[in-house]
Amino acid sequence: MILVLGGTGKTGRKIAERLNKRGQAFRIGSRSATPSFDWEDSDTWADAIDGVDTVYITFQPDLAVPGAKEKIEKFTSQAVKSGVKKMVLLSGKGETEAERCEKIVMHSGVDWTIVRASWFNQNFSESFLLDPILAGHVALPKGDAPIPFVDTDDIADVVVEALLDDKHVGQTYELTGPRQLTFEQVTQEISHVVDREIVYQPITMDTYEEMLRQFHLPEDYVWLIMYLFEEVLVEKNAVVTQDVEKVLGRKARDFSEYAKETAESGIWNPVISEVGV
Ligand SMILES: NC(=O)c1ccc[n+]([C@@H]2O[C@H](COP(=O)([O-])OP(=O)(O)OC[C@H]3O[C@@H](n4cnc5c(N)ncnc54)[C@H](OP(=O)(O)O)[C@@H]3O)[C@@H](O)[C@H]2O)c1
Questions:
Q1: 92-151, pLDDT tens digit by residue?
Q2: How many structural domains compose the chain?
């Protein structure tokens, strides 16, 4: 029995689909699942890990947030006591705080694999970068930072291998896409596939922070977004790795393939409201 935490989210959903196709028994761990699993309420954890051998751990909202390390410590220790034999942790490439959580999993005493991912392509279709694309105006800092965006299809394929095949035990994989792109290049690619003008506007970190506050986003969220821009979008994290190919024996998915498929799905079509016809 595999517990897929965040099993309806960007990576977890695809992992659950793949496990289902392979006829593998699994259970989704999330607040809306039955039994419910909530990172904010440790009383919900026991039922979710009962009878589970292997866990895919995605933490909410991010392993970098204050308190994440303590929760990972508590969860892993409870999981091991409950009989879990293997853990696969989704981590963020270049996040120092996340590396502390990786160490907890590595020293948990059971089999482990760490999957450190670069920024996801799907941030532009299932997360905080979707709204700017729909608005046709992408105002972001770090415009010249090269980012090796990775696709959640590749993450899911790698995680499933790690969950099911013991040859990945004790490995740390760094997953990136096959090339680096800046926010300006991403904006141009999406604009091209949707055949609609989408403008990229470079702004400073201070202006971005101010902008997030103007949208009345919670302070924790503003802190996290600023942390991710400052900590992750730096030169050392821009390196393209070959780990997707190493694990899967095929090339990592290119951003253009993702962009084409997402454009065809209609997710990037702005909703035009019909007024009094
Ligand atoms: N986005 C990126 O570019 C990126 C890059 C590297 C690493 N990561 C890491 O990826 C992880 C997130 O993974 P993801 O993107 O696959 O997930 P996601 O799409 O952000 O997460 C949504 C899932 O988490 C569940 N969830 C939300 N709050 C929860 C809570 N309090 N307790 C339990 N479950 C909760 C949701 O279900 P319910 O609503 O039913 O609870 C849903 O299944 C983060 O740790 C992040 O650091 C992200």
A1: 998 989 999 999 999 999 999 999 999 999 999 999 999 999 999 999 999 999 999 999
A2: 1
- Ligand 1 site residues (CB inside 6 A) read 6-12, 30-32, 37-40, 58-60, 62-63, 90, 92, 117, 119-120, 123, 127
Residue 215: domain span = 2-265
**Dihedral, CA of residue 68, residue 101, residue 60 and residue 88, to nearest 10:** -150
Atom from ligand 1 closest to the CA of residue 126: 19
- For the CA of 11, the closest atom of ligand 1 is 16
Mutation pick for ligand 1 pocket among 3, 4, 31, 34 (CB with most ligand atoms within 8 Å): 31
C-alpha distances out from residue 60 to 66, 67, 139, 151, 171, Å: 12, 11, 26, 19, 23
In angstroms, rounded to a whole number, what is the distance separating the alpha carbons of residues 252 and 153? Answer: 9
Please tell me the number of Cα atoms within 13 Å of 145 on its side-chain side.
Answer: 23
Whole-number average pLDDT of the chain: 96
Tell me phi and psi for residue 162, to 5 degrees.
-65, -35
Rounded Cα distance between 177 and 244, Å, is: 8
Report the CATH number that the domain containing residue 123 is assigned in CATH: 3.40.50.720
Q: What is the pTM of this model?
A: 0.97
Does any domain span residue 103? yes
> CA-based angle 22:23:26, to the nearest 5?
105
If one residue of 4, 5, 10, 152 were mutated to test the ligand 1 pocket, choosing by the most ligand atoms within 8 A of its CB, it would be: 10
Q: Name the residue type at position 246.
A: K
